[in-house]
Amino acid sequence: MLTTLLPVPLAPEISLHLAGGDVGLFDLTGGEFRSDQPPPFWAFVWAGGQALARYVLDHPATVAGRTVLDLATGSGVAAIAAAKAGAASVGIADIDADAIAAAHRNAEANHVTLSDDVTQPAVILAGDVFYSSPVADQMIQRLRAERRKDRQVLVGDPGRGYFPERLFEPLAEYTVPVPAALEETEALATTVWRMR
């Protein structure tokens, strides 16, 4: 897939290999959804990930010297921000092997290292993970389990329909530039939340 190394709009100190211009998510799949292969979410920098990246870069003490895991990493933007902010180590997880490969390629472009195998993380990051009911249900279970282990859980969410606000407290809000072809608007109000 053709991508271009571009600065992240809300965190320009990070550059990612992204689908540029007026490309939408399903434009990259020939306009069709196939259940056997996830759409290329990793080819875009979603609002929740951008907000998390900005928050971590602006508040490095959140991750500095700590082990971090970025769940549903996609392009890896939040993980890369954590590495740049001084995390001791940063792991990534995603159900799509192409996303893991993209996150590593993006990390290399930003001169940081990410790991596929992190145990005992102190901080969990998850950007834009409440976009459908089945995914939201799985993420809620996973994030609650992580929180029960006394891990700090930070989520970036632009008001997706399945976000369980009652489980979180807001930390910061950003106006995030996004491609109109992707979100049908040019900016989304996006909040970084901490799980209670």
Give a description of the structure.
The protein has 196 residues and is an alpha/beta fold. It has one domain (4-195): Rossmann fold (3-Layer(aba) Sandwich), CATH 3.40.50. It contains 5 helices and 8 strands. It has helices at residues 47-58, 77-84, 97-109, 133-148, 180-183, and strands at residues 4-7, 15-18, 67-71, 89-93, 123-127, 152-157, 168-177, 187-195. The strands form 2 sheets. It has a 6-stranded mixed sheet, sandwiched between helices. A hairpin with a 7-residue loop joins strand 1 and strand 2. Helix 1 packs parallel to helix 2 (77-84). The longest helix has 16 residues, at 133-148. It is globular, with a radius of gyration of 15 Å. The mean pLDDT is 93.
What name does the CATH topology carry?
Rossmann fold
Task: State the CATH superfamily name.
Answer: Vaccinia Virus protein VP39
Helix content: 25-40%
User: Strand sequence of the main sheet, in spatial order?
Assistant: 4-3-5-6-8-7
Low-confidence stretches: none
Question: Could you say what the CATH architecture is?
Answer: 3-Layer(aba) Sandwich
Rg, alpha carbons: 15 Å
Question: Which series of helices and strands comes N to C?
Answer: EEHEHEHEHEEHE
Q: Given the helix and strand composition, which structural class is it?
A: alpha/beta
Residue-averaged pLDDT: 93
Task: Give the end-to-end Cα distance, rounded to a whole number of Å.
Answer: 39 Å
Tell me the name of the CATH class: Alpha Beta
Number of domains: 1
Number of strands: 8
Provide the β-strand percentage band: 15-25%
Largest sheet: 6 strands, mixed
